[in-house]
Design a protein that fits this description.
six-stranded antiparallel β-sheet, globular, 20 strands, Immunoglobulin-like, mainly beta
């Protein structure tokens, strides 16, 4: 079912109607927003769920799950749409740990028009999972007309500040201080030292390209200003599949987030 564009005015951001599914609702928003001092047009995929329900990050975690999928085919005057992911959280589930968002999430989408002087008609087909005790596949089809002079969106600027990036804000964002591959026990493990000003809430996630599974890091120790995480590289993964490939390490805490790329040699 297609949710059409709502009325818009030049002075502010725009939004589609809500598409209402089973225990979730979704819509598109759009506006001018800023990240790292750069202003551009962003859309937002806005998902809302009842209390206690959750949806997944791009890497759902050890207990399985459905990562969101975004299809922008059918859009007009769209050169590219790049989905960004706000910092997720580790969620303890009956089946194990998953990574995602509880109750609501807004995924920002960087919009590049083919012709910046004309409106973009953004047509999105979305597939995602919503879960409480069981996981339910969900989908929505949404459409929004984004005028070239669309107004500023404080909501999108706010969520962009929660997207992990390479730039680390001193005193705010946690960071990957050091890392190494430990083979001393005969079983290889990746050891991550995360520097954080909010140490109790520090967490880490590791992703490999091509959908190669990487187990969730386990917190094993705390040092002065650092949390130590270990990834068992014998648990459902062959280290040979990871060597020479860029691994994305995302670290979060209660104050901020950051992202680093490492390569196992």
């Amino acid at each position: 079912m297609l949710s059409s564009a709502a009325a818009w005015c030049d002075a502010g951001p725009v939004a589609s109607d809500w598409y209402r599914g089973f225990n979730n609702q979704a819509r598109l928003t759009a506006g001018q927003a800023s990240r790292d001092g750069q202003t551009a047009i962003y859309a937002g995929v806005d998902l809302s769920m009842p209390g206690g329900w959750k949806t997944y990050w791009r890497s759902p975690g050890d207990a399985g799950g459905v990562p969101p999928d975004f299809d922008w085919n059918g859009s007009e005057n769209l050169a590219s749409a790049t989905v960004l992911y706000p910092a997720p959280h580790r969620i303890h589930d009956k089946a194990g740990d998953v990574v995602g968002y509880k109750n609501a999430v807004l995924f920002p989408v960087l919009i590049t028009p083919k012709d910046p002087g004309k409106p973009v008609t953004l047509h999105g087909k979305l597939e995602y999972g919503v879960c409480k005790d069981i996981c339910i596949p969900a989908e929505a089809e949404l459409q929004l007309v984004i005028p070239p002079d669309v107004g500023a969106s404080a909501e999108l600027t706010d969520v962009l500040a929660r997207v992990p990036g390479q730039h680390v804000r001193a005193g705010i964002d946690p960071s990957l201080a050091t890392w190494h591959l430990d083979r001393s026990s005969g079983k290889p493990k990746l050891v991550l030292d995360v520097a954080s000003a909010a140490l109790e809430s520090a967490d880490a996630f590791v992703e490999a390209p091509g959908g190669v599974y990487v187990p969730l890091p386990k917190r094993t120790a705390d040092r002065s200003g650092k949390a130590v995480f270990e990834v068992d590289l014998t648990d459902g993964v062959d280290i040979k599949d990871l060597k020479g490939k860029p691994l994305t390490v995302t670290v979060i805490d209660a104050k901020g987030q950051s992202e680093t790329t490492i390569t196992l040699e």
